[in-house]
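Narrative summary of target 7.
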Amino acid sequence: MNKQQLANKIWQSANRMRSKIEAHEYKDYILGFIFYKFLSDKEVEFLKKDGYEDDDIKENAHENNEPLVDYCQQHLGYFIAYDNLFSTWLAKGSSFTVDNVRTALSAFNRLISETQKKVFSKIFNTLETGLSKLGDSTSSQTKSISELIQLIKDIPTDGKQDYDVLGFIYEYLISNFAANAGKKAGEFYTPHEVSQLMSEIVAHQLRYRDKIEIYDPTSGSGSLLITIGKSVAKYTKSKDDIMYYAQELKENTYNLTRMNLVMRGIKPDNIFTRCGDTLEQDW
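Modeled conformation, tokenized:
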């Protein structure tokens, strides 16, 4: 299945699962779980590169293993215990419940590195506080979440593909949620064609600078910043020379900015974001 087919499958299934939740709200759930999968898979990949096998991770990746917690926090900015990994949720099968998600999200916020709180702190707030909207009971919430994680489990997050499949699917879902949200879409998505034109204009103006800083005062999902970054990167020695600044008023949309930037491979040290009203508290 290619990236377009996988994206279509996820979008169509998400529409069937959406029930009474509006598109502009449901995006926060599905995109939030995709981001959690990304972080979870990234930690597993990181540990395996260090020589850990699956059994080693199961035995050692726990909160009381302070050296490993510190090691992950130092290199990743966060730590996820084995019991809270996305892959562990899948392995639980019928024993998985919504409480596993609540426990995992609470633990994630507690185990963020002090130096990376600006990027990761409360990033899952919208997802965590809104789980009750996915059903009237624990069993119905569990059913909805189980269907959702099964839906996204095949999204590759290791970056080994010739094309950024994860980024493509994320962008595809955001654009489709925007199209279905109608007038509410402007707050979190700039059409790709507009973003592309703006990014080429900005990149042309910045092409001779050694240090590049780009800022979006109403960042939405962060797609415009990312598009500008890609255009600017053509004129820099390294994409890590680009600093990203973003401000966004609504917390759920602000969280999308941070998720999107991190998933596109931008170093947390290069990400500077703030949740605030640009008209009253411009950066």
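The radius of gyration is 19 Å.
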